Amino acid sequence: MKITIYTSDHCSACRKAIQFFQETGMPYHQLDVGYNKGNFDEMLRLGGIATPLIIVGTQTFHTFDPQKIKEALLRHDG
């Protein structure tokens, strides 16, 4: 399952999301929107207006909610 996290340096929720995926051992792709306009534009096209924007498979999360993300991961594995 593909996991993408759009992040920025000043975002504490981004750091928590990254730590969450590192602790669960789930591979993820991190895209910084603060220093890369292409990543920022892509985040906007996906409906994101703030970081973190987390995409787990086909589900999009506009905030870091570990419980909802765990549920999405379980649905995908189940």
Provide a descriptive summary of the structure in words.
This protein is an alpha+beta fold and 78 residues long. It has a single domain (3-69), classed as Glutaredoxin (3-Layer(aba) Sandwich). Helices cover 44% and strands 21% of the residues. It contains three helices and four strands, in the order βαβαββα. It has a four-stranded mixed sheet with strand order 2-1-3-4, sandwiched between helices.
Features:
single chain, Glutaredoxin domain-containing protein, globular, 3 helices, Glutaredoxin
What topology does this entry show?
Layout lengths: L2 E5 L4 H13 L4 E4 L4 H9 L7 E4 L2 E3 L4 H12 L1
Pfam family, one: Glutaredoxin
Protein name: Glutaredoxin domain-containing protein
InterPro entries: Glutaredoxin, Thioredoxin-like_sf
Mind telling me which CATH architecture this is? Answer: 3-Layer(aba) Sandwich
Overall domain count: 1
Largest sheet: 4 strands, mixed
**CATH fold-level topology:** Glutaredoxin
Number of distinct helices: 3
Shape: globular
Radius of gyration (Å): 12 Å
User: What sequence of helices (H) and strands (E) makes up the elements?
Assistant: EHEHEEH
Gap from first CA to last CA: 12 Å
Helix content bin: 40-55%
The low-confidence parts are: none
InterPro entries: Glutaredoxin (IPR002109), Thioredoxin-like_sf (IPR036249)
Domain Glutaredoxin: 3-58
Pfam families: Glutaredoxin
Protein name: Glutaredoxin domain-containing protein
